[in-house]
Here is the input.
Amino acid sequence: MALTIASREVDGITVLDLSGRITLGEGSVQLRDAIRGLIGKGTKSILLNLGRVDYIDSSGLGELVSAYTTAKNQQAEVKLLNLTKRVHDLLQLTKLYTVFDIKDDEASAIASFK
Amino acid sequence: MESVSQVEAAAGKLAAETGLDEDERFHVTMAAREAAVNAVLHGNEYDPAKRVTASFENNGKALVITITDQGKGLDPETLPDPLARENLLRGTGRGLFLIRSFMDEVHFRQLHPGTELTLVKRLSPADKGSIKMLHRDLDAG
Here is the structure.
C-alpha cells in the first residue's frame, strides 16, 4: 500500500498521520515533500505518527533521517510517535533509536515540544 | 522499480512456503527487496538497457536467493559502517547492513561486469521438526 499522509494541528504542533509503506518509490518522496513543505512554511514542531506504517525499507529509514536533519538545520524538530513493532525493531537494529525522540503517547509527545 | 516489486513478491511467496515464522519471512522478503534495490539503483544505475536477474530456490535446508546486476561491480568491504557514530545521520548506506542482519549468509561474486549477490536463509531445526510432525499427523490419519 502506498503512503498516505494526513496533516492536523494539535496545540500548535503539526501532526502527520502516516499510513502505508515508506519505501523507495512508494512513500519516501511523499514524506520528503511533506517535511520540506512544512519546514519551508516555517513549521518548527512536527510529530510523525507512524502507527499505521507497516513497512519501512532502507530508503525510508534514510528519509526519516533526512527529515530529522532537515528540521534540525532549520531550528525545527521532528519526533516520532507510535512505532509498530517492525519499525521499532528496524530503528533499534540501525541504532536510529538513539537519534530520534520517540514517543508512545500523543498527549505526552505534544507536551514534550514545549 | 517494477523488478524490485517482482523480486519482493517472489521472495515472499518462497518464504511463505516454509516453516519460517512471520518475522523470518519478513526478513527474507525485505532482504530480497533491498538486494533488488541495490541492483537497480547502485548496480545498474537505473540504466534500462541493463538487466537484473533473480533466482529463488528452496533446497530443503535453506532458501537461496540470487540477484544479479550488470553494473560496474561492488567491493562490499569499502562500504562505510552505517552504525558508526559519524554515519548515523547519513541518508543512505543501510541496505547491505539490513541484508546481512536478516540473512544467515550473504555472498558476493564479481561478474565483470556486474555483481551477483547470493542470500541464504537456513531453515531452522525447529522448522524441520514441525514438518516431521505434520507428516506424522498425516500418517496417523
